[in-house]
Amino acid sequence: MNMPRQDQEAITVTIRPASLRDANDIVALDDHVTGENKAAFWTDILTRYSGDSAADERFFLVAEAGDGQLAGFIVGEIRAWEFGSPPCGWVIALNVNPQLRERGIGTQLFDALGEEMSALGITTIRTMVRRDDKVNLSFFRGEGLAAGPYIELERHLD
Amino acid sequence: MKLQKASRYALYAVLHLASEPGRQYSTADIAEHYGISTHHLAKVMRALVRCGLIESVRGVGGGYRFTGNVRRTTLWDVISEFESLEANIDIPENVGGEAEIIINGLDTVNDELDTLIRATLDSITLQTLLRYGEDATRRSRQP
Q1: Does the structural domain B5-141 have CATH classification 1.10.10.10?
Q2: What residue spans define the domains of chain B?
Q3: B67: closest CA of chain A, how far (Å)
């Protein structure tokens, strides 16, 4: 049974490493999507995950539409032996401009990150998503991710 | 959780209609295709119309058509009308005495299972479900 695509036409974007010059656009996109301004957080992440100071195992990629507009971004990192896990790639943030969703941009960002990690010998990629975040959960499922060998546990400290 | 027959029929119908969005199929067409009861499927189709997942098209050549998006509509969207997630562990009600604390503990486990099952079902789109099915079928046919 083949399903016809119901999306709008895919947009081809330019994917490049992020730099501190992208900070305002990244903060604005995240603010627009989440409703929270986290300027200090993103500036810190950009400082540590992009540019010459970034370690080899950290990645901050942005997708640029034809007009130079920020279409989305992805942040990832290779981590080893946390929770007993062998080296593994993590997606720690992914965001696409809501007006440009369903156009293949998230997939292009995810694929680009996967290629960077594969080149370093990584064979598994994982992420963590709120269980009520249907958009991101279904996106990552669509990219082939499924429940893995770990369960996240937490409690309130009171 | 034991999947209700109505849920299975709903998935057959929705995926059948979604495979050709421009075309309408009658209940009889779909029932014949999957070898299932037309009478039972008719009830399911009415429930799917109420949920807004399919719509009825009147007139010659009329039938039903899918109104959703296979990359957005999830397994839970389709089956939630027919399923209850309240019976993962079959726990007797109104148990008192020494057993009460154990039963209350099992209730907490049930709540966690319900939440996880619901989240899983609501994260699998129809397109992902089909890919799982195709992958599993391919594996099972490999010598």
Answers
A1: yes
A2: 5-141
A3: 11
